[in-house]
Model the fold of this input.
Amino acid sequence: MNSNLFENAAGVSGPATSQDWVTAHCDGGSRGNPGPAGYGAVVEGANGQILARLSEFLGIQTNNYAEYSGLLAVLRWSLENGHNRLKVISDSELMVKQMKGIYKVASPALRPLWEEARRLAKQIDRFEISHTLRGGNKEADRLANEAMDKGMGKSSRPAQPPTANAYAPRPATLPKPAKAERQVFEGFVKNGVVHLLNGELPEGVFVKVTRE
Done:
């Protein structure tokens, strides 16, 4: 099947100009598969300008569910904003080949998503979908991870490495050590052992013996 799998699906004839096309990079992920999931997408105009950034936390879902959710978000955005020529780039080879009809959709959980994606894609005058490696989808991947972080209550801001002595308290804030109270005990030494005449010494106390 041609990668332009829904060309002229809405009955529009004539060649499309490059200015008519928008390109969407979409990605989805799940931490655990199934686990906390989210998608991210970046939509660009013909001149590379950013038209939209889309992302959403999906709760506990699979990777493939998240990938399809990203595609559906892009398709809905395109239709709602009047963009009738859409190129989608995804790093999910499974989803791309299922959308092209190369792979069958065996999963009962994915089947409704695939059917909805096909239905929406047929409403677009020109639709193309292609596969890329993860390195070609960095911005969408970042948005998907941010969505997962927010949904899990985590900060998406990258942790900064601590500088030297970052956790060392300032000298001015250090409490002054309490001065040890000096006590004098009387006793005698027998067979190398100190015997006190009165009182007892607590365990671990430092003792200084002065000979008289």
Strands lie at 22-30, 35-44, 50-61, 85-90, 126-131, 187-190, 193-196. The first helix runs from residue 63 to 80. Helices lie at 63-80, 93-100, 111-121, 138-151.
